[in-house]
Design brief:
With 168 residues, this protein is mainly β. The protein contains two helices and ten strands, in the order H-E-E-H-E-E-E-E-E-E-E-E. Strands 1, 2, 3, 4, 7 and 8 form a six-stranded antiparallel sheet that branches. A four-stranded antiparallel sheet has the order 6-5-9-10, with no helix packed on it.
């Protein structure tokens, strides 16, 4: 058997795991780009107000009942549950000074629909909160659910509608 001539020895073979680890390390190091991490920015929710004709304004919200304190749940007469959200619709009219609002009367109906197409009529009832009347009802929700709410308001001889959606 002949020996290779000096200077022509074959390079030692590296095992694949070592080569792959070195390649991954180099790739991950390049991903950082030398930039410092940036903190997440808070994105405020869309205004939960629908300006209707009349002039009439509807303030609305749909939130998990577990987000309510025990006292608020008692005040509204609802049970806190992981599978329920509270729908609140409050009717107001603009007051004499800008930004001032006064209570408004009207009938409110609502329907909820999730991504699976399941629909439910929301049984709303009027609840007094100080000088104001809120229309409240519960909606069945699931984990990571998206719910679209369609609201119909009868006030001042007019029927008006608006809708919104919430992700859970």
């Amino acid at each position: 058997m002949s020996r290779p001539r000096p200077g022509t020895e074959a390079a030692p073979r590296r095992p694949w795991p070592v080569v792959l680890a070195a390649l991954l390390t180099a790739t991950l190091a390049a991903c950082g780009g030398g930039q410092a991490p940036v903190a997440a920015q808070f994105v405020p929710p869309a205004p939960a107000v629908a300006d209707l004709q009349g002039p009439l304004r509807a303030h609305y919200n749909l939130l998990p009942t577990l987000a309510l304190s025990e006292a608020v749940a008692r005040q509204y007469g609802i049970e806190r549950s992981a599978g329920q959200a509270l729908l609140v619709v409050a009717l107001r009219r603009p007051g004499a000074t800008p930004g001032d609002e006064i209570p408004a009367e009207g009938q409110v109906q609502a329907r909820a629909r999730n991504l699976a197409g399941q629909q439910q009529e929301v049984a709303l009832r009027a609840v007094g909160t100080g000088d104001y009347i809120d229309h409240i009802g519960t909606v069945a929700i699931g984990t990571r659910d998206m719910v679209r709410i369609e609201v119909s308001v009868d006030a001042g001889g007019r029927r008006q509608q608006f809708d919104f959606q919430r992700n859970f």
